[in-house]
Amino acid sequence: MGLRLGLDLCEPHQCHCGSVVDARGLHSFVCKTASGRAARNHALNDLVARSFAAAGVPVTKEPAGLFRTDGKRPGGLTRVPWQSDKPLCWDVTVICSLTEFYVNGAARKAGAAAEVAASRKDEKYEDLDSRYLFEPIAVETLGVLNSYANSLLKEIGYKISLNTGESREVSFLHQRISVLVQRFNAILLHDSLPTTDGAY
């Protein structure tokens, strides 16, 4: 709530990386040394993989053997064709829409930062083997998704609904992603705080 309202979340302090964290805490969400960022990525990727599985679509997380010149792998791959007889690869990313670089675009249009992040993921994986579809799943720190991710999650949610008989699975899936991102926002802010006598 504090992020959405632009409230002060903490006292200004120095992050463990040496950067200054202002009262809004924004640096803590983009700090490259924060271990919580990797944990958030893994948790989000796991949530997506479990959602595919709940929809009856078998997947492999971080599949090896897909062509990339630098050896990096996408977050997951469906083990059956998803569309046009091609399996779907995805990769997740979280972007802070409140940083100076994104805030103007985000103020004009909800999801603008997520769309930029999704475009960067597309460029990153443009050399992926043509036998696969690639789709980015970009989430903003306020929980907004890029447009394709919204469509993909709707499709997964509908498939889960067919298996469970619960018509609200699409909403539940979006809520799970939003709650996960919010939890990690708190973790990242907390982890940027200085320690006193070995404790926070």
Can you put this structure into words, describing what you see?
This protein is an alpha+beta fold and about 200 residues long. The chain has one domain (about 45-185). The chain contains 6 helices and 6 strands. Strand 1 (about 15) and strand 2 (about 20) form a beta hairpin.
Count of discrete structural domains? 1
Secondary structure category? alpha+beta
Based on CA inertia axes, which overall geometry fits? globular
Order of helices and strands: HEEHEEEHHEHH
Distance between the terminal alpha carbons, to the nearest Å? Answer: 23 Å
Mean pLDDT: 88
Oligomeric status? single chain
What portion of residues belong to β-strands? Answer: 5-15%
DSSP E strands, number: 6
* Major sheet size, sense and barrel closure: 4 strands, mixed
Residues in helix, %: 40-55%
Q: List the uncertain runs.
A: none
Number of helical regions: 6
Strands of the widest sheet, in order across it, are 3-4-5-6
- Gyration radius (Cα, Å) is 18 Å
